[in-house]
Amino acid sequence: MSTRRNFMRASLAATLGAAFAQSSARSAFAAPQVADAASALGKMKLSFRPYLLTLRHAFGVSGVTRTETMGVQVEIECDGIVGYGEASMPPYLSESTDSVLAFLKRVDLSQFNDPFALDDILTYVDGICENNAAAKCSIDLALHDLVGKLMGQPWWRIWGLNKEKTPTTMYTIGIDTPEKVMEKTREAAKFELLKVKLGRDKKSDREMIESVRAVSDKPIAVDANQGWKDKVYALEMIEWLHEQGIVMVEQPMKKTKHDDIAWITERSPLPIMADESLQRLTDIPKLKGVFSGINIKLMKCTGLREAWKMLNFARALDMKVMVGCMTETSCAISAAAQLSPAVDWADLDGNLLISNDLFDGVRTEPNGKLVLSDKPGLGLTKLEKPINRLDTLI
Q1: How distant, in Å, are the alpha carbons of 111, 318, 328, 374, 377 from that of 148?
Q2: Which of 363, 386, 387 is closest to 166 using CA atoms?
Q3: Contact between residue 192 and residue 368 where contact means Cβ atoms under 8 Å apart
Q4: What is the phi/psi pair of residue 106, to 5°?
């Protein structure tokens, strides 16, 4: 382990600067709350409101099952141009609708006169208080959408990415009864890559995979959500999963069990990806040698500004990269999709799992292929009426 610690120190010094250098500039319709700020282009207006996202199916992971989740929708308007953002609160990070709204009320952009000064603005936002990553992300996304629209370009193009290289998104099957798992799997029959939630016990985990396999032979990624307690058991499960056509495993054990996870990764026939073990950019050096790669989620890392740095840093360390999501509308999914041409895997199905999407943005082909828009910013159009996104697959 001393070798890994030495590598961490050396890699942080040698690589962090390079990664930074590549960075780019229950009422569903509560009344908007407004804060004003001045801009060189005109007056910016920040508004935000809670929004209840309803899930199409009950969604179960190793520790909890839910049927709905609260989000917060954010807008920043400047000279008649509106940038959209969103906060979706991961329960295990202790954010809530109340904490997000309280944070947003503290945001005062009056000291900035240029929305293009993303680094200055978002450094200020990040410094308002610790944590609150989803709240910070909502501002980051709205600013990126606004600036992209002012530039007349989508962010995948600003970053120099090729939109034809987008991957297919995974489609997630949450923990459920065998009958419901088979129903969900049939519903996702056209998707090229499925993702199955595991992490309970041997019987339940094997039953989940066997239920999927009863109706589908598609490749599967699995997410144990820190659920496996013993490294030997975890490795045995991974070896069995390899035989079932699984292609990747996320977060097999508790996020603090770095030595055990490193032991698993060294012996695993499958890539082992960090999820809960990874929050922000500064976490990456200590994960080299522990995981095969990282899963970047905008709601955990404060948004696109830091996500772009994380992607480049991980690549410099020769780690695999995945971009994931929470339960989100097409606002945040379209934001994360801007990064997708540069990653190995995408798990951007949060908008497909809800019945009341508010935006038209990144499109999903029936096989899961992500189709990026040429529209500027995050490529979003706000809808007059919420829709069930899964019904709109092209």
Answers
A1: 21, 30, 21, 11, 4
A2: 363
A3: yes
A4: -85, -10
Please, what sign has the CA dihedral across residues 55, 293, 310, 10? positive
| Rg of the chain (C-alpha set) | 20
- pTM value is 0.88
| pLDDT, tens digit (0-9, with 9 covering 90-100), for 160-215 | 999 999 999 999 998 899 999 999 999 899 999 999 999 989 999 999 999 999 99
Give residue-wise pLDDT tens across range 241-298: 999 999 999 999 999 999 999 999 999 999 999 999 999 999 999 999 999 999 999 9
Query: How far is 391 from 389, CA to CA, in rounded Å?
Result: 5
Report the C-alpha gap between 308 and 182 in whole angstroms: 37
Tokens of 74: 């954010």
Nearest-angstrom CA–CA distance, 354 and 136:
23
The angle that helices 118-127 and 133-151 make with each other, rounded to 10 degrees, is 170
Supply 344's token pair: 């190995």
Q: Which two tokens stand for residue 167?
A: 């991957």
Q: Pairing relation of β-strands 220-223 and 246-250?
A: parallel
**Cα 192–Cα 197–Cα 199 angle in degrees, nearest 5:** 145
Cα separation, 185 vs 142, whole angstroms = 34
Structural domains of the chain in order of their starting residue, each with its CATH number: 22-156 (3.30.390.10), 157-392 (3.20.20.120)
Query: What's the per-residue H, E or C state across 280-293?
Result: CHHHCHHHECCECE
C-alpha–C-alpha distance, residues 191 and 87, integer Å: 27
Alpha-carbon gap, residue 169 to 251, rounded angstroms: 19
> Are residues 78 and 41 in contact, defined by beta-carbon separation less than 8 angstroms?
yes
Please state, in angstroms and rounded to a whole number, the distance separating the CA atoms of residues 216 and 235. 24
**How many angstroms separate the CA atoms of 322 and 345, rounded?**
5
Q: Would you say 268 and 238 are in contact if contact means Cβ atoms under 8 Å apart? A: yes
Would the CA dihedral through 331, 333, 336, 340 be positive or negative? negative
Q: What is the largest CA-CA distance in the chain?
A: 61
